[in-house]
Amino acid sequence: AQSVTQLDSQVPVFEEAPVELRCNYSSSVSVYLFWYVQYPNQGLQLLLKYLSGSTLVKGINGFEAEFNKSQTSFHLRKPSVHISDTAEYFCAVRGTSYGKLTFGQGTILTVHP
Amino acid sequence: DTEVTQTPKHLVMGMTNKKSLKCEQHMGHRAMYWYKQKAKKPPELMFVYSYEKLSINESVPSRFSPECPNSSLLNLHLHALQPEDSALYLCASSQGTSEDTQYFGPGTRLTVL
Description:
The structure holds two protein chains of two kinds. By secondary structure, chain A is mostly beta strands. Chain A has strands at residues 2-6, 10-14, 19-21, 23-27, 31-38, 44-50, 56-58, 64-68, 73-78, 87-95, 102-103, 107-112.
């Protein structure tokens, strides 16, 4: 079984500032890792994923994340945020041989002008 | 094309009504999922269909009845729901392979009166 901890429930930040949303996971097996974004009253949109290979993963909208196996982390970063990045962000993990996604509790990113 | 469509967008129903939620994907995906998402919570898995067969039922009450008529369509039949069933219902699909990624629809906002 896997578990995901998103360390911050809310992250306020000013426009054009950098941001990091933290995600730690626990698993007894190898995992795949995902970040999804959910805008108000919408479904989840895939931002990026780590399956294998380079531990630095680039996604849509200028986001990137780094897989750190020793620290069991998959933190999401963006060097300069926009107002339009205001949304809820979910980190998710799945075992490599099993299809059930386990989500973290979500981090609400609020970008202020 | 990574689009999953869901209808209706909003649904209000009484506790004695019968209604259905519909989900469609044309990406050739062979796995489809229903999730329930309450406000300020992550999605909770309800059902998984793999190659048109129900493979996972997360102990969902029988008032929710899934159906997969073909590989592109997924329905969720609702009957005798309770007010606490009010939530955003999300459909997702994936290729059904070991490295697959789930793509989500926009959801149906259900209100049970």
